[in-house]
Design brief:
The protein is of the alpha+beta class and about 140 residues long. About 50% of the residues lie in helices and about 15% in strands. Strands 1-3-2 form a 3-stranded antiparallel β-sheet. It is globular, with a radius of gyration of 18 Å.
Length: about 140
Amino acid sequence: MAIERTFTIIKPGALQRRLVGEIISRFETKGFRILGMKTMRIPREIAEEHYKEHIGKPFYESLLAYMTSDPAVVMVLERENAVDSLRKLAGATNPDSAEPGTIRGDFGIPWEMRASIYYRLWYLCYPVSYWWEIRSDRDEREA
């Protein structure tokens, strides 16, 4: 097999939950060599390009908001069969379907819990006055 390189992102939620060291340890234990690593807040333009295959899907805007909300760790990894090996190590996209022992299986947030996380994300993105105005408008219509 040939040596391959692949790109991965340790998402903002993993940084918030302090899982970066554990995730990097798993990469290294599985034989990945870290060629480059950077902690950064992903610019919206980069996130739009990276996730362009999801344009038009209902989750697209919330995905961009999440990926640009806080710093993430971007990495280039290398090893034999790197792309397939990383996919196997990461696990199924849906944490509820991901096998135990995979990154998503062990650390992924179940999809039913994401609604409350997205609510908090959007709530924190807007000033309290915005939410007050919405509530005030609704209260006036109900009166």
